[in-house]
Design goal:
The chain is an all-alpha fold. The chain has one domain. The chain is built from 14 helices and no strands. The longest helix has 26 residues. It starts with a helix and ends with a helix.
Length: about 300
């Protein structure tokens, strides 16, 4: 039952991330990327913190006595990974289009098992590798990448994918040690908001009138994506290992395409539908094949 709830959490998280791509792109019409991220993640923090006091404050003593120092170090690493991943993706949207950004972001799918294999010398179920290939092919077809031009911003997205992968890996480590998903979600959003604010102060202008013009995009990206989606990710990874989790999260591109179809009237071609099918096959392979081996 807990595995099923984790899968549902992962899918809901991925749905929110996918639909947020549109808010991220349209939310920078009047403000800079770091201003957008600073406000977005601070809104996410404000949305989560009441839930921390309601549900997790009483658990602090029992959970954090395990190893408080490790919790702080891992929380900082997760927050730093999230900051670099989200900052590079947000800045990249100024220099490349959503199609390129969506395709190159999916590179965290192969990066996660490769990093785990190299640094942890941990065996990975063979189904991960064909699943990764299917997801990359699906991402290629989904975004019509062959119609786009490779830009300088694409390098930022690829670098950002590296930090998305470390975020998934560090989250996988911390959720095995501590049962504090809301606290961790609040901490990482506060770290991202603070670091984004510092850089925004140097390179951008905080104009409240312009910020309020983007309030709809900020609230959606902040409360749902910057706040609750990352808590759902943390809960999902309690019962799903990082490599299969990364494959499930690659459905973000599918949900982004469907959202663009509904909200922006973008037509889905045969290639887009094939891309959705390939990614769905990759996700199912990564989840079902290990179960088949266990059943035997």
């Amino acid at each position: 039952m807990s595995k099923s709830l984790s899968l549902i959490s992962a899918l809901l998280c991925t749905f929110i991330w996918g639909t947020t791509f549109i808010a991220q792109d349209t939310g920078m019409d009047d403000i800079g990327p770091f201003t957008f991220n600073a406000v977005r993640f601070f809104v996410g923090f404000l949305a989560i913190i009441p839930l921390v006091f309601l549900f997790e404050v009483k658990k602090f003593k029992s959970e954090l006595k395990i190893d408080f120092k490790t919790f702080i170090v891992l929380s900082f690493l997760i927050g730093l990974s999230l900051f670099f991943g989200s900052a590079l993706q947000q800045v990249a949207l100024l220099y490349t289009d959503v199609a390129n950004a969506a395709f190159f972001t999916i590179f965290y799918v192969p990066m996660v098992p490769i990093i785990i294999f190299i640094f942890k010398s941990k065996s990975i179920h063979w189904s991960v590798w064909p699943s990764v290939v299917l997801c990359l092919i699906g991402g290629y077809l989904l975004t019509n990448f062959y119609d786009a031009t490779v830009r300088l911003g694409d390098a930022l997205v690829i670098l950002g994918a590296l930090f998305w992968s470390t975020h998934i890996i560090f989250t996988g480590i911390i959720v095995k040690k501590y049962n504090l998903p809301l606290t961790l979600g609040a901490l990482q959003t506060l770290i991202v908001a603070f670091l984004s604010f510092l850089i925004g102060l140097i390179y951008e202008e905080f104009i409240f009138e312009n910020i309020f013009k983007e309030i709809d995009s900020i609230l959606y990206a902040g409360i749902l994506s910057g706040g609750f989606a990352f808590v759902l990710q943390i809960y999902a990874q309690k019962n799903i290992t990082p490599a299969p989790a990364a494959i499930i999260f690659s459905l973000e591109g599918v949900f982004a395409t469907i959202a663009a179809w509904f909200l922006l009237d973008q037509i889905l071609g045969l290639n887009n539908l094939l891309g959705c099918f390939f990614i769905l096959c990759g996700v199912l392979l990564s989840q079902l094949l290990p179960l088949a081996k266990r059943a035997n």
